[in-house]
């Protein structure tokens, strides 16, 4: 069976690799092509920053060219896994403004109180860019975030991708799979995510090897600006990634990685970790 091309939709410049970098590593090692399309990659278009953006920029500690540096980090991290990048250049939530010019979000907690009705114009913009910049027919599978943690940009990315696939193929199920949002799942504050975000979905647990996890952690370390924001130390990040690796045991060669679909996929594991029922990652088709 021929090799395939897989697309991962990422809200921000780190999300897909933090969540799926180990799985991407395996796909590439199997001879497949992987592309990461990140939605919110544009520079702040307003003459000034909101207080929230100023606070986060201070945590990034990478100077004034924040998005330029973050895009460079993303290219390096993706390259370390053998993946390509596409940046859709939409402004992320900390830069967006209301029609009267005031910041759309002024407190950190507001980013996790999703009201997509107030973001319909952004959903339309993101969907339009997906249609214009991404050729759906190129990809065997499209992976998108479930939205665990309810970060507004993650939820916008999910909804826009669903609309995009529906507009092209008339259905969202044939090529679409969902991944768990890390590190938000690990934070544990979204206890109802299964019922709210994955109700009725099938879960497919893929077995990956420790080498895939190591490659993912090395890639995460290339997002230096985000490490300072998301984790108190490198050790904390490392510990959290181990904890998110289902069934990880230092004495065992493999661990579990979950993907979700709205239909029932066949089973698949990595060659290094167990028997493969279908010697190709096209297991959702």
Report on the structure:
The structure is a single chain. This protein has 285 residues and is an alpha/beta fold. The chain has a single domain (5-261), classed as 3-Layer(aba) Sandwich (Rossmann fold), CATH 3.40.50.10320. The protein contains ten helices and seven strands. The protein has helices spanning 15-29, 51-60, 66-81, 120-133, 152-169, 184-187, 193-197, 210-220, 224-230, 234-244; strands spanning 5-10, 33-38, 84-87, 141-145, 176-179, 202-209, 254-261. The protein has a seven-stranded mixed beta sheet, with helices on both faces. Helix 1 (15-29) packs across helix 8 (210-220). Residues 264-285 have low confidence and may be disordered. InterPro entries: GlcNAc_PI_deacetylase-related, LmbE-like_dom_sf. It comes from Paenibacillus oryzisoli. This is GlcNAc-PI de-N-acetylase.
Q: Report the mean per-residue pLDDT as an integer.
A: 86
Largest sheet: 7 strands, mixed
Class per helix and strand makeup: alpha/beta
Give the CATH topology: Rossmann fold
Shape: globular
- Count of helical stretches: 10
CATH architecture verdict: 3-Layer(aba) Sandwich
The CATH class name reads Alpha Beta
Which helices and strands occur, and which strands form pairs?
Elements lengths: L4 E6 L4 H15 L3 E6 L12 H10 L5 H16 L2 E4 L32 H14 L7 E5 L6 H18 L6 E4 L4 H4 L5 H5 L4 E8 H11 L3 H7 L3 H11 L9 E8 L24
Parallel strand pairs: 1-2, 1-4, 2-3, 4-5
Antiparallel strand pairs: 5-7, 6-7
Helix pairs in contact: 1-8, 3-8, 4-5
InterPro entries: GlcNAc_PI_deacetylase-related, LmbE-like_dom_sf
Protein name: GlcNAc-PI de-N-acetylase
